[in-house]
Design a protein that fits this description.
This protein is about 45% helix and about 20% strand. It is α/β, with parallel strands linked by helices. It has a three-stranded parallel sheet, with helices on both faces.
Length: about 70
């Protein structure tokens, strides 16, 4: 069982992915949008896997991914 955190600006997408992960036996420890507050929360929760939407239209999703890796 993996501890997962979901980062996506669309609440519907977060809920759908959380359902899929929970049904697969994984624990979703949190979710949120691309804000720095949610990224800080993700770091604090120390998930084993992060699901992130890198195709965000108004931001460079790969840049957000790099900040998460740091």
């Amino acid at each position: 069982m993996l501890r997962a955190y979901i980062i996506d600006n669309q609440a519907v997408a977060r809920n759908l992915l959380a359902t899929v992960l929970n049904n697969g036996g994984h624990e979703v420890v949190g979710d949120g949008n691309h804000s720095t507050t949610n990224i800080a929360r993700m770091v604090k929760l120390q998930p084993q896997i992060v699901c992130i939407d890198i195709g965000e239209a108004n931001k460079d999703g790969l840049a957000v991914l790099e900040s998460v890796r740091e």
